[in-house]
UniProtKB/TrEMBL annotation:
It comes from the Archaea. Pfam families: DUF5615 (PF18480). This is DUF5615 domain-containing protein. Residues 1-94 form the DUF5615 domain. InterPro entries: DUF5615.
Amino acid sequence: MKFLADENIPLKVVKKLREEGFDIISITELNPGISDEKVAEISQNEDRVLVTFDKDFGRILFIEGLKVPGLILLRFPPKNIKYIYSRLKKVFESDVEFYGKVVSVHEDKMRISKL
């Protein structure tokens, strides 16, 4: 499974996940400062599930009709890098099929719905 981290995911988290063997790249590495629409376009073009803290992506997907292969929406407070990393690692290691889904990740649960 391939992932694309939005700019709001710390680069240290992305690099640590990559060291663990996950196929993840960051907008910070590719093209920082681009619009959410461009982020969605990269996600779609590279067939990568988008990972973000930005709840605007729900609006972009459902109201504006932009497409991404899947969305992991982080809905927990980004306490520190270690915490974000540990939560994402657990999510990535779960049995969830992220393609075609919106996965809202909270501190104590995940909510999954179809795109």
